[in-house]
Structure formats: structure tokens, C-alpha cells
Amino acid sequence: MTDSHAAGAARAPAAIEAATMRKVGLRLVPFLILCYFIAYVDRVNAGFAALTMNKDIGLSQAMFGIGGGLFFVAYVLFEVPSNLAMERVGARIWIARIMITWGLVGIAMAFVVGPYSFYAARFLLGAAEAGFFPGVILYLTYWFPKAYRARVVATFMVAIPLSSFLGSPLSAALLELEGVAGLHGWQWLFVMESIPAVLLGLGALLLLPSRPAEARWLAPAEREWLEGALAAERAAPGAQAGHMPLWKVLASKQVWALALIYSGSSATSNALSLWQPQILKSFGLSNLETGLLNMIPFGIASVFMILWGLRADRSGERVWNTALPLALTSLCLALTNLTNSLTLVMVLLSLVLIGNYAIKGPFWALATEWLSPATAAAGIAAINTLSHLGTGGATSLLGVIKDRTGSFPLALTPLVCLTAAGVVTVLILGRRGRTPPAVQRPATMNAV
Questions:
Q1: Major facilitator superfamily (MFS) profile domain location, by residue (predicted)?
Q2: Cβ-count burial of 308 within 10 angstroms (0-12 exposed, 13-18 middle, 19+ buried)?
């Protein structure tokens, strides 16, 4: 073989890898981002609806917080079973089922008439949406080798801040439909923002193959490379054989530690998405002004989320890339107690969300590397589920503390505590060497 032929043979695997990952990224990630965008809009649009709905149906801040917390009670109860069901019936069918169900429940939210119907609707919405996020994280492990996951997860999860960045002005505009066809503006908000979930659920049946073997849009050589790369990772030393029983996953200290690390970020994401419109409205803003200002911190966070995910993949380091943003979140949440200035509050909330969303990619890359392939389905769902115990509690407490003290900054104290506990936990685990070694960089950093 000549030198030129040898060089060409050496470049061939890298070229196949780049082409394969580019195709997979372009085919799957944009659609999944759109699905999660709608999921998060439907989860948190009650925050904007509350600007007028609470008065219309007689909800206090504490009642609204309880309803927000009940979403996560249902989420916790149904999330792990949902993820295990996806393993059995396939990602395409199960993700579609989740989306169609939550879309229908979201439409039903328009017809709540008081506290108890609001509680029931939020509980049912949590049950319907349970399993979607960990299901997608698990689904991504079927398609992306470890070296790509931080940036892919970060790109996928940019739908969270984007849902508030784009959803805020949309929700504020829908509130202006007050009285059209005899409906309140908040009723139009729930109906119009839930219909896309049903349509995307139907689209998932057509667009999402369950495994690489079903991807007709990959060339045979590309399918062979991808399946081989993923199989090699599953067979690598340290990947446990067999399936760990669910009770063992839930009893794992490792799973609980990861859940604690993530609970502060999860609680902050959900609590601020739900409550931030009311925090800003308390400065005397109109609904439209609230919508426009609410989008700013989330827009900035969207950019930093992707940049930090790219940085984490380039360095291959996970612990500090998780701990530093989470520490920024905790510090800036605490500092909101020191100011009554709308401008300073906006700056602090922007820094909170920059830190909070920056950890998403590195954390889930760390979690999927830490868990064996045999335990990934239950483990990912368990981490997300257990972290939502803190999310539900913090969301409910925020309303109670606000009713008791009249202060939104004081109401954010549970978030300060959870994020600080997460920082300490990830640093302790890193110091003990419980995390995986740095991930080898892929052949091309621009494939996805």
C-alpha cells in the first residue's frame, strides 16, 4: 500500500464519523428541541396565565404554588415507569404518546374554575409529561457516543430557556385576547399553546426512528460505524453487565447524589419559569412589559448554555464545568435579597439563569458516563425523578413564603439552599474520584 493510500485509509473512519454525526444531529436534534420547547411552554405557561387567572378563579399565591408542586408529584410518581415503558415499546411510539397526552391535558387547563380543578389539571399534566425528558436523554444515548453528549444535551436543552424567551411575549400577547369568543385571555393561552404538542406527537410517529438500525437516511457504512462505536462503549471496561433491578437503582447512593446535584438546577429552572413573570409584575409592569422583560434573561442564558456545553466537551472535564455555574446560580439568588432595583434584579436573574442552564449539558454528560448502559434507562429517570422532589417542594414553598412574608427574594431561599448543596456534593464526589475520566475528543468537534 502506498503512503497516499495509507493516509486515505486513516482519514476514512474520521470522514465517516463526521458525516454520520452531522446527519444524526441534523435529523434528530432540531425536532427534539422543538418538542421540548413546546413541552416546557406547556409546563410553565401557567406562570403567565396567573397574571390574570389567579384573580378570576380565586387562587392565592400559596394555592398557585401548591398547584405548581402537584405537577412534580405526578412527575415523580410516573417518570421511572414511563422511561421503562419506552424501553419496551420503543422511543418513537412512546414519545409520541407522551406528547399527544400532555397536549390534550394542556387544552383542558383552559377550563379550570377554582383551586381544586387547578390542582387536578396540574397533577394530570405532570402525569402526562412524565418520562419525556429522561426518555429523550436515554434516546440520545442510542445515537450519540459519549464524546458528543455534553454539547448535544446542551443543544437539546436550550429549548428550556428558549421556551421562556420566545414564549414570554407570545403568552403576554395571548392574554390580550380577553373576551374573544367569550373566553378569558388565559384560556386562549392554554388552548393555543397546547395544540402544537398534539401535532408534534403525530409527527414523532413519522420522523423518529427508535434505533440507528431503522435510520434509512444513513448509508450502510455510516450505520455500521455508529452501531460499532456505541457497541464498543457498551462493552468497554467499567460498563456493568446485566440489568440492575429498579429497587437497586433507587437505593443507589450514586443516583441520590446525582439527583441532589441536579435538584437545585431543576428547581431553579422550573420555579423561575413559573414565578418570574409574577416577580417582574410586582414592580408595577404591564402584562406586555412583563413579557418583554421576562424574555431577556432566558435569551442570554440560551447562548451561554450552548457555549458552556461546547467548552465542556472540548476540555472533557465534567466536575468543575458543573460546579462553577451552579455556584454562580446560588450566589446570585442570594444577592436578590440585597436590592429593590428592577435593573439590578434583572442583572441578577440573568446571571442566575446563565449559571443554571450552563450546567445542563455537562451534568447530563457526567450522569450518562457514570451510569452503566445496563442501568441507564432507570438511572436517568431516577435522577430526574428524585431531583423533582426538591423541585416540587421548592415550587410550593415559594408560594407559601411569599404569602407569609410578602417578599419574593425571601421566597427564593429554598433555591439558594438546594443549589449550594449541589455545589458541595459535586465537588466532594470529584475529590473522591467518583467521576469518570475525561472523555476522549471525537475526530471532529464540528460534526454536531
A1: 28-434
A2: buried
